[in-house]
Every structure is written in structure tokens, then in C-alpha cells.
Amino acid sequence: MSENKEMKTREGGEMQSRSEQDVFLRPAVDIFEDGHGITVKADLPGVSRDRLDVQVDGNNLAIEGRAAIDMPEGMESLHADVRTTRFRRSFTLSNELDAGNISAEMKDGVLTLRLPKRAELKPRKIEVSVG
Amino acid sequence: MLGYLTGFDNDVFDEFDLMRRQMDRMFGDWSGPAGIRSLAAGSFPAVNVGASEEQVDIYVFAAGMNPKTLNISLQQNLLTIEGERNIEAPEKAQYYRQERFSGGFRRVLTLPEDVDPDKVKASYHDGVLQITVQRRESVRPRQIEVK
Fold first, then answer.
1. Cβ separation of B11 and A89 shorter than 8 Å?
2. Is B89 on the interface with A (CB under 8 A)?
3. Which one of A30, A72, A92 has the shortest CB-CB distance to B52?
4. ipTM
5. What structural domains does chain A harbor?
6. Among A78, A97, A114, which would you mutate to test the B interface (most chain B Cβ atoms within 10 Å of its Cβ)?
7. Which pLDDT does position B8 carry in this prediction?
8. What percent of chain A has pLDDT above 90?
9. Beta bridge mates, B64
10. What's the pLDDT tens digit per position in B46-104?
11. In angstroms, what separates the C-alpha of B25 from chain A's closest C-alpha?
């Protein structure tokens, strides 16, 4: 296969007029919490590890990715559900999460982010003493 | 402005997305009649189809699949893609969002009539299934030399 090319979307034989800069796909996410922290799973099909950008700025978590698709030259679009190659989604974190210890894993276009709770804030069972 | 991870859904991009979907519903994304076997916009998985003189390429955006669960068949020019993506919810976890598709899917696409069902290749990479079908040579435009 030749090197990856940005997926081109064409309408009526012309490149889409809307600038790609302001069009983003919003990846579907699952978010769940357990005793250790919060896990975010995002569908980013076509995004490889090196085209993924996860950033924490203050308490803002931003997920961005660019899909790369092998496409031969001179291809005309017959049908396009996906009309941009850029994914973006962001969340605001809360203070009890340890933003410095977020881990990320990418497999088959699925991003898994683990956001651990600060050790001192992990839930503790409070014993009620019977007096 | 942004959605709280554990709070209400007030992401500014959600608002745009909602507006766009409402506009699409009201005015339609009119591009002629819809295929009889086409699915509603936003159905899983998204599919793009591109064609060149030599081949037709189908891109199925299905992240996190086990390629072994994919079943692809081509009957003349009718391509059927079936698969299953089962997301197992971890025990003892509280869900805030569960947007990712879980379950079985089936998409049927009508390809150009000159595709050759004997020349199909499929690969799965980074969550995208790519199917390439060659077109029959006889119908490709040929340059005729004038002597």
C-alpha cells in the first residue's frame, strides 16, 4: 500500500467548500466510574496512535484525532456518511481526579482513557461505631 | 461552556450538533431519493464508498471490532456487511454515558454494476474495514489510437 493520504470527500466532483478546519466529528463515548476512577472510551475509527492528541489543560480534557485512510488517486465519492477526518471532543474534569496520572491506550480505533482519583480521595467506607 | 464529565450535558459542540441534526430533519440533506436499503443517518457503522476506473473501495468505520465476527458477501453488485460489536459493561461501574453502539449490525450497499464479485479484498486497520472490489476490464474506458 502507498503512504496514507488524508481521506478526501467530494461532492459533485468538487472538494467540499466548507473549510475542514471548523468541521469536526464528535466521537461516541462511554464514560463510567468505579472505585478507582473514571474511564472514558471513545470510538475514533481510522485514527492511529500517532494521529491522536489527548491534552489536559488545567481541568479541561481535550481529545482530538485525525483519521487517515488509504485511498487511490482519482477516486470519486459515491456515498459518504463521514465527511471530515477530524474528531474532537472535550470535557471538564473535576478536582478529585488526578490529572497528572491519566493513562491512554489506543486499539483498533478505540481510545481508552483512565482518569484515576487522587489517592486521598478514593472512597472510604465509614464505620459507624455503636456506642 | 464545556460539559462536566460527571455533570449535565451542556457541551458547546453538542449544541451545534443538535442544531445541525434538527436542520437536517427539517430541511433534509437533499441529495435525491435515498437508497431503499439505506439506513438512517448516524447509524452504526458509518460507511463511505469511493470509485475509480479500476476499483470500488468501501470504508466501514467500525472501531473496536473483532474482524472474525465480520461477515462480508457480494452477490452480483449487492454488498452485505454484517458484524457484531458487543461491549461488555464492567461490573460495579456506574455509567454516565453509553453512546457507543453495542450489538449486531447489517449494512447492504448497491455498488456499480460492473464490479467483479471474484475480485474482492478486505482488510481491517485502526478500526476501519476497507473492502476493495475490482471493476470488470471490459467496461473500463479504453483509449483508441488513431492510425
1. yes
2. yes
3. A72
4. 0.74
5. 5-118 (2.60.40.790)
6. A78
7. 46
8. 48
9. none
10. 999 999 989 999 999 999 999 999 999 999 899 999 999 999 888 889 999 999 999 99
11. 16
Nine-digit cell string for A14? 468538487
A79-127 pLDDT tens trace? 888 888 899 999 999 888 998 899 999 999 999 999 999 887 677 778 8
* CB-based contact A23:A86 (threshold 8 Å): yes
Q: Is B117 in contact with B79 (CB distance < 8 Å)?
A: no
Are A39 and B48 inside 8 Å of each other by CB?
Answer: no
Please report, for residues A46, B58, B116, the alpha-carbon distance to residue B121 in angstroms, rounded to integers and kept in the order given: 18, 10, 11
Q: Which of A26, A34, A60 sits opposite B92 (nearest CB)?
A: A34
| CB-count exposure of residue A43 (10 Å: 0-12, 13-18, 19+) | buried
| For the ranges A58-67, B6-15, B26-35, the one whose mean pLDDT is highest | A58-67
- Using CA atoms, how far residue B37 sits from A36, B85, B109, B114, in Å, is 45, 21, 7, 20
- Kindly report the pTM of this predicted structure: 0.76
Output the nine-digit C-alpha cell for A43.
Answer: 470510538
In chain A, which residues have their Cβ closer than 8 Å to the Cβ of B14?
A: 26
B:1-60 residues touching chain A, CB 8 A cutoff: 2-6, 11, 13-14, 17, 41, 45-57, 59
Alpha carbons B115 and B135: distance in angstroms, whole number? 4
pLDDT of residue B140: 63
